[in-house]
Amino acid sequence: MNIILHDNGKHLKFAPLTLTRPVGNLRMGMFTNNQRWEMYLPDAQVSYVTEEYLSKKYPAVLTEDNFFVNAAVIPSSDLIAKMQNLATGEAIFQGEEWIAFRGESLSLDTANHVQIEDLVILEERWDIYQKNAEVLAADFAAYTQGKTSQPLSESNTVIGDASQIFLEEGAVVEACILNTKSGPIYVGKDAEIMEGSVVRGALAMAEHSALKLATKVYGATSLGEHCKVGGEVNNVVFQAYSNKGHDGFLGNSLVGEWCNLGADTNSSNLKNNYGLVKAYSYESESIDATNVQFMGVCMGDHSKCGINTMFNTATVVGVSANVYGGDFPPKYIPSFAWGGSDGFVNFKIDKAFEVAENMMGRRGISLTQEDKDILKYVADNFSH
């Protein structure tokens, strides 16, 4: 099957995370969504229809027989079965929302409709953490079926069902408290939970990720590849290659790739009046009301913050921003902004490239020309 994940006009809906990636490449649960499709359909080819400036890095691969899929939809075995039975020109809908279409090009107007129910569809960026528990549990059940976990060291204390803990080859977990009563715990290849950590599921750790000594984790939390996390986290999704290595609280938050949060960074995730929060929208370019009570920080790729940074409830940080200094910075920090509560200056693009190359080089990864072109576009269009 040739799967094409279509942004479906929601590029800005999930910004700042989607300023540098397609909607179909967002992480939640145990996987990015393209990885999830590849898990269900190992022989499938997966590509994207996304914004033009992202398309050189994330191109669409078209054939005579394509399955166009709403990229905000989380696949399930039921959806896979219905897709495999689609005839050319047929579409799957959940209510009024289109889910999938089979054909040479996307044409929903004349398509015959097949209905489906109970799919998880992301509507807002905060759905990524709010629906993370449900998606993580489904990922765990689908991925671990028929597989055998590596043995768990007897130095650990398990509360709940030990079968809901899965360790890949090379995973290290010693002298920790692991509670699966509220969700499963997945520890990827060569990942580590260091001594003294207390984990209440659900938790998913991708390969080479780590929880530092005595970390406290409340589910549902997801760590992408090579993320290092310490302190206290509650319902947070890290995309990949990002660090929150020290003490400090982060709750109901989203962190992009190649981010670093300085020691004792803290984010408020609840207003003092317990009301619904307002958050910056990239669609309206204003701070708008939401239907959410808990919301921490949402940080785009390559952004950093200094030690003792304090984020207000529902703070949005763009791409390649650098936040530091005392007191609370504004609730919206544009991309390529450098500063804090006393004001910001623009982060020069050549300096941003240098910082990114230095950080990525430590992992043996290069900042490609495609990456630079994307960052340059973001700097030109989203740094105000």
Automatic annotation (TrEMBL):
Alphabetical UniProt keywords: Acyltransferase, Transferase
GO molecular function: acyltransferase activity; nucleotidyltransferase activity
InterPro entries, A to Z: Bifunctiontional_GlmU_bac-type (IPR023917), GlmU-like (IPR050065), Trimer_LpxA-like_sf (IPR011004)
Gene3D superfamilies associated with the record: Hexapeptide repeat proteins
The keyword Metal-binding is annotated on this UniProt entry: no
Pfam families: NTP_transf_4
Family annotation (NCBIfam families): alt_bact_glmU (TIGR03991)
The protein's name in its UniProt record: UDP-N-acetylglucosamine diphosphorylase/glucosamine-1-phosphate N-acetyltransferase
Organism from which the protein derives: Lishizhenia tianjinensis
